[in-house]
TrEMBL record:
<feature type="domain" description="Helix-hairpin-helix DNA-binding motif class 1">
    <location>
        <begin position="108"/>
        <end position="127"/>
    </location>
</feature>
<feature type="region of interest" description="Domain III">
    <location>
        <begin position="178"/>
        <end position="229"/>
    </location>
</feature>
<dbReference type="GO" id="GO:0048476">
    <property type="term" value="C:Holliday junction resolvase complex"/>
</dbReference>
<dbReference type="InterPro" id="IPR000085">
    <property type="entry name" value="RuvA"/>
</dbReference>
<feature type="region of interest" description="Domain I">
    <location>
        <begin position="1"/>
        <end position="64"/>
    </location>
</feature>
<keyword id="KW-0963">Cytoplasm</keyword>
<dbReference type="GO" id="GO:0005737">
    <property type="term" value="C:cytoplasm"/>
</dbReference>
<dbReference type="InterPro" id="IPR010994">
    <property type="entry name" value="RuvA_2-like"/>
</dbReference>
<protein>
    <recommendedName>
        <fullName>Holliday junction branch migration complex subunit RuvA</fullName>
    </recommendedName>
</protein>
<keyword id="KW-0227">DNA damage</keyword>
<comment type="similarity">
    <text>Belongs to the RuvA family.</text>
</comment>
<comment type="subunit">
    <text>Homotetramer. Forms an RuvA(8)-RuvB(12)-Holliday junction (HJ) complex. HJ DNA is sandwiched between 2 RuvA tetramers; dsDNA enters through RuvA and exits via RuvB. An RuvB hexamer assembles on each DNA strand where it exits the tetramer. Each RuvB hexamer is contacted by two RuvA subunits (via domain III) on 2 adjacent RuvB subunits; this complex drives branch migration. In the full resolvosome a probable DNA-RuvA(4)-RuvB(12)-RuvC(2) complex forms which resolves the HJ.</text>
</comment>
<dbReference type="GO" id="GO:0006310">
    <property type="term" value="P:DNA recombination"/>
</dbReference>
<keyword id="KW-0234">DNA repair</keyword>
<dbReference type="GO" id="GO:0009379">
    <property type="term" value="C:Holliday junction helicase complex"/>
</dbReference>
<dbReference type="InterPro" id="IPR012340">
    <property type="entry name" value="NA-bd_OB-fold"/>
</dbReference>
<dbReference type="Pfam" id="PF01330">
    <property type="entry name" value="RuvA_N"/>
</dbReference>
Length: 229
């Protein structure tokens, strides 16, 4: 199985890209959100991938993070949800949005994705609600797909015998939102809260304040979990 590709972006289409990995071109299907986040054609690119093999089909699907890849795997495990629908959901909500919607039981947000009806959205939330804490906890160890990549990309315009090479652009530093959510989830678990209720509280707190750090998320989640009345 092909789990990750690192190479040069040869072209972008409406729903897929071609990545040149040492002379071999791989067609990788991606969500709208992922396509928009990729570098310009000719630059270095890396994507985590999920490979689907059937009797009449062999396709690769690409994701910028392991969290997104895991959500794709879980979404496609739900009855009636194929790769196309999964990419539509991830493209509409992003991995953090999917985590938040499923942890909170917010099937209306899932239904906002193209091709997802109310029954399918409700089934997704029902089937995956218990999986949300585990995926959210991955945030502390997930790195951006380009982190650590140090490629030398050959410029196609250089046709001399010894072509010049240019270093791939340094990746942007990953944001701390996923790590903060994972840390808050772990802290609430250590305080005795169950995975589902902790995940729902952290998801709601992160939705109210996306820029909150880990201590801020813990405080906000504890307020949400405090007995009412």
């Amino acid at each position: 199985m092909i789990g990750k590709l690192t190479g040069r972006l040869d072209y972008k289409a409406l729903d897929h890209v071609l990545i040149d990995v040492r002379g071999v071109g791989y067609i990788v299907f991606c969500s709208d959100r992922t396509l928009a986040s990729l570098p310009p054609v000719g630059e270095a690119v890396a994507l985590y991938t999920d490979m689907v093999v059937r009797e009449d089909l062999m396709q690769l699907y690409g994701f910028p993070s392991l969290v997104e890849k895991e959500w794709h795997r879980l979404l496609t495990s739900v009855q009636g949800v194929g790769a196309k629908v999964s990419l539509a959901i991830l493209g509409t909500l992003g991995p953090d949005g999917v985590s938040r919607a499923i942890a909170l039981g917010d099937w209306a947000s899932v239904k906002a994705a193209k091709g997802v009806g109310p029954k399918t959205a409700q089934r997704i939330v029902l089937d995956l609600k218990d999986k949300a804490p585990g995926v959210m906890a991955m945030g502390g160890t997930v790195t951006e797909a380009m982190e650590g990549v140090d490629l030398e990309v050959v410029d196609p315009a250089d046709t001399v015998a010894a072509p010049k090479k240019r270093k791939a652009a340094k990746p942007k530093a990953p944001t701390g939102a996923a790590a903060a959510s994972a840390g808050a989830l772990s802290a609430l678990g250590n305080l005795g809260y169950g995975p589902s209720e902790a995940a729902a509280a952290v998801a709601e707190a992160a939705g109210d304040n996306p820029d909150a750090d880990e201590p801020g998320l813990i405080r906000a989640a504890l307020k949400l979990l405090a007995p009412k009345g």
